[in-house]
From TrEMBL:
It holds the Pfam family Bet_v_1. This is Bet v I/Major latex protein domain-containing protein. Belongs to the MLP family. GO terms for biological process: defense response. The lineage of its organism: Eukaryota, Viridiplantae, Streptophyta, Embryophyta, Tracheophyta. It comes from Vigna angularis var. angularis. InterPro entries: Bet_v_I/MLP, MLP-like, START-like_dom_sf.
Length: 158
């Protein structure tokens, strides 16, 4: 059995890929206010939320438990609307040697969009399960944030 793996999920969204990428590249700290499974986040290290040397502390619900982790940005690809994060700390370090989360906002035909999350991981031991709970968490975040964006757009047109 391999200790490394990659899993992903892709969900269609109503908001444009540009809006999604803007939120995750410039306004990530707002996610805690609209995603039900995210209980809070704060800047743990650094001066700016969106630089590679900053570290954020997240509190969230994973597999029915409230847990915390730290996250930093590994890379930002503006052309492909892709951000790669390193996740580590309490909820991660006892199970995974590495846990990388890749966010991608994808343009689809007809003005549609989708959000794809890919998780690249290396488990510490064979008895550790792949991090499917994170895919479920990110699916919830996508639905909550998308509903918020759509509602904000409705309010803006009133």
């Amino acid at each position: 059995m391999s200790l490394t793996g990659k899993i992903s999920t892709e969900l269609p969204v109503y908001a444009t890929a540009d809006k999604w990428f803007h939120i995750f590249s410039k306004k990530l700290h707002h996610v805690q206010h609209v995603a039900g499974k995210v209980h809070g986040t704060k800047l743990h290290q650094g001066d700016d939320w969106h630089t590679n040397d900053s570290v954020k502390h997240w509190t969230y619900t994973l597999d029915g438990k409230t847990v915390t982790c730290l996250e930093s940005i590994e890379s930002v690809d503006e052309e492909n609307k892709r951000i790669k994060y390193n996740v580590f700390g309490e909820a991660v370090d006892d199970k995974y040697k590495t846990l990388k989360i890749i966010f991608e906002a994808i343009e689809k035909e007809g003005g549609k969009a989708a959000i794809k999350w890919t998780i690249e991981y290396e488990k510490l031991r064979e008895d550790v399960h792949p991090p499917y709970g994170y895919l479920e968490l990110y699916d919830h975040i996508i639905k909550d944030v998308d509903a918020h964006i759509v509602e904000a757009e409705k309010d803006a047109t009133k």
